[in-house]
Amino acid sequence: MSVPVAWATAWRTWQMTRRAYPWSYAIGTVLPAALAIALAYLGYHAVGAGTVADDFTAGAGTTAYLAYIAVGATAFQFTVRLILWSAKALITEQREGTLGALLVAPAGRFPYLLGFTGFALTSSLVEFLALGVVIAAFGIAIPVSSPLGLLLGALALVTTVFALSVGLGGLMIAAGEAHISQNTVFILLGLLGGYTFPRSYLPEWARWCAELLPTTAAVDVLHGATTGGQSLADLLPRLGVCVLVAAGYLLLGLLYLPRAEARAVERTY
Length: 269
What we know:
Family: Belongs to the ABC-2 integral membrane protein family.
Shape: globular
Helix content: over 70%
Pfam families: ABC2_membrane
Membrane topology: Multi-pass membrane protein
Number of strands: 0
Strand content: under 5%
InterPro entries: ABC2_TM (IPR013525), ABC2_TM_bact-type (IPR047817), ABC_2_transport (IPR000412), Nod_factor_ABC_transporter (IPR051784)
Largest sheet: none
Oligomer: single chain
Subcellular location: Cell membrane; Membrane
């Protein structure tokens, strides 16, 4: 891995974004998570009278409904934000007419994507500090049973999203579009990934499909380390699954990316 390439990519993107970043877009990306938390707060108090059903407690392992939603909504919006930055890096180069120059540049694609993800991670963390204000405003307290497990879960989520973004970015430049592919991924992750409701609500076949998604195990770790009340030892098996799934997605993405780039060049020239 070339550290100078990754650093130069992250620094270049930071400088470009700092000069011409639409802050209204940043607010727009945080609002969906804030709205999900607000609706959950309204439903919990106005409809549920401050109680949750037994099947939720059995599936989620907690009665802290609002904290569960806050963790899940934040994780999902963070996933979306990271994919929008990382997976669309190559197609953004394609749209700006610089993909050809990037492909012939003496720089590896892996450090380039890693540098872009590093910038995306930093900028997304800054933006999502606003969500902490929203959660505090609703008086939602999020318990943390394993701080180290929570940190490892967050790293696992970033790693799995990066692994997914490598192949997804290749698919975008090969197909020459981004919206259909990215929104399909968002729908699958949102419906099957267990972000804001227990996967026990899903039919058996859907739960098996969810295990194939890269972020499912990482989300389980985040919930387990917070509202789930689990220790680090309890979380280790799911962290192991995160590593295996991320390695699989990353390998497939790196194998597919050169073919996608060749296809993109053929379509362009």
